Each structure stands twice: as C-alpha cells, then as structure tokens.
Amino acid sequence: MLTLGVESATDQCGCALADGGGLLAEVRVLLGRRHAEMLAPQVGFVCEQAGVTLSGLGAVAVDAGPGLYTGLRAGLATAQAIAMALGVPVAAVSSLEALAFGAAVCGASPSLTLSVIDARRGEVFWGWYSTSGEGDLAELTKPAVGAPEDLAAEIRRGEVVGRSAFGGAGRILVVGDGARRYAEVMGASARLELAGEELRFPPPSAVALLGRRRAVAGETLAPEHVEPVYLRPHDASRRAWHAPTRTP
Amino acid sequence: MCQSCLGMHSYAPVEGPGVGGVSLLPVSMAVLGIETSCDETAAAVVCDGAQVLSSVVSSQIDLHSAFGGVVPEIASRAHQRLLPSVVARALREADGAAGATPDAVAATAGPGLTGALVVGVSAGKALSIAWGVPFVAVNHLEAHLYAAFLENSGIPLPQVVLLVSGGHTMLVLMSGHGRYKLLGQTLDDAAGEAFDKVARLLGLGYPGGPAIDRLAAEGDPDAIAFPRPMLADGLNFSFSGLKTAVAVYLRRNPEAPAADVAASFQRAVTDTLEAKALRALRRCGTRNLTLAGGVAANSELRRRFKALDARTFLPSRAMCTDNAAMVAAAGWWQLQREGPSSLGVGPDPSWGMPGA
Ligand SMILES: [Zn+2]
Fold it and tell me: B219 near B321, Cβ under 8 Å?
C-alpha cells in the first residue's frame, strides 16, 4: 500500500513515500518555519522522484504531534485534504514515536528510547519507548509535557515506566531536539546516551513506514476525525480583549 | 459540478476579462473556495465566478464570545477541527451524488490570523495537487469586493466600494477587475471594532454588531449628539474617538437608556460612512457604489444606503459577512487574469488590498 508520510511537527518540514518494499523517497528541509509554504511542493517533489502519482496512494500518514502548533496545523491540513480528495484514510503517528522508530531502524537498538521534543516556552514533550530488533516499537508512556527539570526528575526516579529494563541496567538512548537543547538539565549519566544529529527531528520516512504499517493493519481514521495532539490547553488569557489582527 | 460545469472541460480560447488578452481556460469552471482568515470556517463551490452551487459557513462565535473577541489560538484549533467536514459538505451540496471534482481551488491567504490562514492555505494547496487542478491564493479584502458580483454580475465599473467590517474600514475605487485604488481607510479602529467595544460598554456581549442593531431599533437616534469624527475632511476614518465619547457619556450618565445610546452611536457611524462614501463618489466621478463586509449587514446602514442618490449595490447579509463563495468568485476572476498561484505560496497575515 503506497503511503505518503507528512512530517511538520517540529522546525523541520518534510515528507516521504513508502510501499511494501520499504522507503521510496524522502525529503526533509530545515529552513525556519515555512511549513505552509513548503509542504505541497515537497509532496509533488517526492512523487516525481519516486515516479508515482498521488492517485496511487492507499493511505496518508501524518505526524499528529505533539509539536509546534503552526507546523502541526500545516501538516494535518495537508494530510487531511489529500486523503479527502483521494478518498483514502489517514494514519496518525506521534512525533515522539516517529523519533523512537527512527532510532530503532538506525540499528541503535537500545533497550529504551526516550524521545524529547522542544516544546518552546521552557518546556519539552517526551515519551518512553522500548525498541527491539527491526523497528519493533512499544509505547511505554503516553506523551507528556512539562519542564525539562520534571523530566530529569522522572529519569532520576527511574520508576515511571515500571519495567525492569528501566530500573535495571541497559542504556537509554535520548533522541530529539529537546534532548539536545536540555542535555545539561537532564544530567550526565553513564546510562544516558544522547543521539546524534540524524535523530534530532522525527524522520519523515519513519512517519511513512509506521503509518503504512498502521494502514495495512486497518488502524486508520477518516480524514475529518484526525486530531492534533496539542497536550496544552489554548492560551486565551493573553488576549482577554479584541484581537487586534481581526480581519473583515 | 453544475449543469454547465459537469464534465465540460473542453478548453477553448476565451476573452480574458479586464486584460483584453486571450487565454486558454475551460468554458465553464467550478471553483472550490476556502475561507479561514478569522472566525468563520467556510467552503463554497461557485461556477464561473457567478453561480453559487453551495456555500457552507461554520461560525465560531460561540467559542469566542466568552472572551469578548476572537482568540487566535482558539480560532486556529477550531478551523483545524472543522474545515474537513465543511469542505466535504460544500462539495456534497454542490454536486449531489455524482462525485465530480472542482476545476480549481481558491483559498484565502491573507490578511488574517496566521494560524487560521495556515489551515486554509495548506488544505487548499493539498486539494489542488491531489485533484491535479490549479490553486489560487486569494486576498480576503479583494474577496469581499466580489461578494456583490455573486448576486449581480452586471455591476458597472468603475465603482466605489465601502468595505466595513470588524478589521477594516476602507473606501476602494474598483476601476476594473483586479484594478483597485485605496481612497481612504480608518486611522485607528475599524467600524466593526467600534460596534464591538460600544456593545461591551453597554453590556451587550460579543459580537456587538447584531446586538447594537437590535437594541438601536428601540432607541432615539437623535437623543445624544455623539461626534462624527473627521466628517469634514478627506476620505479617511477614525472611530476610536467616537468609542471614547460613548464611554465618557456612559460614565456621566449611568442612567441613560441603552437603546438611545445604541441608536445615537449607530447614527453617528452611519452618518460618517455615508458622508465619506458620497464624497468618494464625487471625487471619482461615478454613481456606482457597493457595500461590503460584516458591518454592511447593519439594518440602519442598509436602509440609509438604499436611499442614497447613487446606484447602490447591497449584497445579501450572508454575502456581507465572511464566506467562501466570495473567495471562490475572486479566485475565478484572478485565475482568468493571472493564472494559478505558485504552490510555494504561504499565508500573508498583513496582506493589503492588491494594487492599492
Ligand atoms: Zn472579512
């Protein structure tokens, strides 16, 4: 099943195509926040490079967050619209699991992966995953949001996962731009291993491959039912009165 | 999509309106319009910039009323949640069961709230690449000018357009399609903003326009002599002084009947808009005047402008407030003139009136 993966939940923006044979094409650009500008041309580009047309898609996968709001909205609106126009379903993938999946297929194969995404405003999104073998991924915790210090405390307690792998030996691979930004806060430990540049952002290929897997298993949604994962309530307090940018 | 659009894709040379060139375009073209610039999530299908096949508007007013104004993050989230169903409904209502796809997609790209625009522009571009049809990025202000053409394709040009809404108050000379000149605009608050603020002073809630409209019907418009700001000179507007005058009056006269305050305030706004519109007509040497924007739904304004010594065109209330049919119409005209927009286009929150 030919699957388009759309990834724009971080500063990075990209997309990828995957089918039964694996990854067909991938593009990822880190150029500031120009997701709404770049996504549609990127989709056209990967299709052209892979020699396929959108009409051949069986599903659209999208990184539904958590992540940066504007990028998330561009990605979701794009994925939902393509799926609706073609009459195909959407497979939602979490940004945190896409990061962990990226680590797994990199062959890093640690016992535990901690995905940490910079949430701005001094906060991070994070989630724990166990990875084994060829990209088999288990979500150990629901995506969380909080101060990097909260996460550091969770790591020190070593109990959140409630699994021996966490309490016992084994290394923990930490991935994502949040991990790199707050590496010092999380503290040095022999068990923590900070992943390299290639796992700073969720790979679009991971979104396409994970999404395809999900679509084949029938774990999909109608386009109008896909919800972004914000993890934070909207901040209305800053605009108690009329928005100055209100349009006609 | 409609009788004339369905299945008709025989490309033939047609006169490009406004430019006089000959361009290759479908004889008949159904455009899907998408509007998400502020607090209405809307989609519509319009044939040849004139025939509205469907127009769906999902208002978020209930979500914002508790905050007394549009909250950008709430608006963005709501657009995200609502747009797919709104588009699906517009397509369904336009098409019945045939499942035909539009010939082009037009989406508002600005001005407006960034997060809200991102949703509509991204969806519009994605639909266009999935269907393999052209995409047009539409200016929201220009779209308002085209609302009147949906109901009267014979509006003569040149004409003066008074665009009054919650975010804008401007007089525009439209000498041809795609040819606009900004004659004047508000230097501070928009007219609709003044309605919202005065409604708040009177405890009428949000949005203020319809509330003041209703209350004013029971009041005496001559009861209080509120100022007519900048009435004497030029074509620019200023409404913040009027709002302050109402606030001061209410402080000094807490027992004043709210209906009289509403009616007198509304009269002051209407007098100002009327005087400026007439001055613009005189300066431009035309008698053609069109009203556009949400404030153009105001009863007193409509009554007064109908009685003017001019050829006045008043779009229906549904076409005055934000909708996607006007976006589809403006998109169709733009496609004829300039062809499709680049797929690399993004939201432009502070996009002004094109060419003005
Ligand atoms: Zn508007």
Answer: no
Helices (H), A60-196: 69-86, 95-105, 148-157, 164-167, 177-181, 183-186
- Chain A closest-CA separation from residue B85 CA (Å): 6
Report pTM: 0.91
Each of the 356 residues of chain B gets a pLDDT tens digit; together they read: 444 444 333 333 344 443 334 444 456 899 999 999 999 999 999 999 999 999 999 988 888 887 878 889 999 999 999 999 999 999 999 986 556 799 999 999 999 999 999 999 999 999 999 999 999 999 999 999 999 999 998 899 999 999 999 889 999 999 999 999 999 999 999 999 999 999 999 999 888 899 999 999 999 999 999 999 888 889 999 999 999 999 999 999 999 999 999 999 999 999 999 999 999 999 999 999 999 999 999 999 999 999 999 999 999 999 999 999 999 999 999 999 999 999 999 999 999 998 76
CATH homologous superfamily of B155-314: ATPase, nucleotide binding domain (3.30.420.40)
A interface with B, Cβ–Cβ below 8 Å: 34-41, 43-44, 54, 69-70, 73-82, 84-86, 223-224, 227-228, 230, 234-236, 239-243, 245-248
Residue ranges of domains in chain A, CATH in brackets:
3-95+202-234 (3.30.420.40), 96-199 (3.30.420.40)
CA torsion angle A40 A46 A52 A55 (round to 10): -20
Which architecture characterizes domain B11-148+321-338 according to CATH? 2-Layer Sandwich (3.30)
- The pocket of ion ligand 1, defined by CB under 5 A, consists of A 248; B 322
Q: Which residue has tokens 């991924």?
A: A137
